[in-house]
Automatic annotation (TrEMBL):
Keywords carried by this UniProt record: Acyltransferase, ATP-binding, Nucleotide-binding, Transferase, Ubl conjugation pathway
Single GO MF annotation: ATP binding
Xref: PANTHER family: UBIQUITIN-CONJUGATING ENZYME E2
Annotated EC: 2.3.2.23
Designated name of the protein: E2 ubiquitin-conjugating enzyme
Lineage start: Eukaryota, Fungi, Fungi incertae sedis, Zoopagomycota, Kickxellomycotina
Organism name: Coemansia erecta
Source taxon at top rank: Eukaryota
Keyword Acyltransferase: yes
The UBC core domain, residue ranges: 2-148
C-alpha cells in the first residue's frame, strides 16, 4: 500500500507544481498508467512539437524504474521505432529516490541532447554521427509531420 501512497503523492505534486512543457495524468481507473504530453524543447529539432508518451509504473516501483515509451513517431538516436527510450535512469542508473517528474525531465533533456554513442536506433545514430545537419533536418521534418499539436 505504501507504493500507492507514494504514487498518489507524486501525482499530487505533478498537478500542484507541473513540469513546464510536460503534462502527465494517470488514466482513469489505473493509478499506474499515465498519459503524457511533452513539448519538444526549444532550441532543438523537436521544438514546436507535442509528443505523446505512455508511462507505466510496474508493481516493483519505486524499486524498479517506470516503463516509458514514445507513442509519437520520433527521429532520435536514443529512441527506436517502437518508441522505446535508451536512457540510463530507465535502466541501470535507476534509484528509488527518483520520481516520475525526474524521469520526464530527463527524457525532455534527452531530446535536447541526443547521444549517438549510446544508440537504440543505430541507423539514426549513424546519420547523426556522419551528417548531423541532415539528421537534425530529418528530426525537424518528423516533428512537423507527426508531433504538431492540433490547433
Amino acid at each position: 500500500m505504501a507504493t500507492t501512497k507514494r504514487i498518489l503523492k507524486e501525482v499530487e505534486r505533478l498537478n500542484k507544481d507541473p513540469v513546464p512543457g510536460i503534462l502527465a495524468q494517470p488514466i482513469e481507473g489505473n493509478i499506474r498508467y499515465f498519459d503524457v504530453l511533452m513539448d519538444g524543447p526549444s532550441q532543438s529539432p523537436y521544438a514546436g512539437g507535442r509528443f505523446k508518451l505512455e508511462l507505466f509504473l510496474p508493481e516493483e516501483y519505486p524499486m524498479a524504474p517506470p516503463k516509458v515509451r514514445f507513442l509519437t513517431k520520433m527521429y532520435h538516436p536514443n529512441i527506436d521505432k517502437l518508441g522505446r527510450i535508451c536512457l540510463d535512469i530507465l535502466k541501470d542508473k535507476w534509484s528509488p529516490a527518483l520520481q516520475i517528474r525526474t524521469v520526464l525531465l530527463s527524457i525532455q533533456a534527452l531530446l535536447s541532447a541526443p547521444n549517438p554513442d549510446d544508440p537504440l536506433a543505430n541507423d539514426v545514430a549513424e546519420q547523426w554521427k556522419t551528417n548531423e545537419k541532415l539528421a537534425i533536418q530529418t528530426a525537424t521534418q518528423w516533428t512537423q509531420m507527426y508531433a504538431k499539436p492540433s490547433q
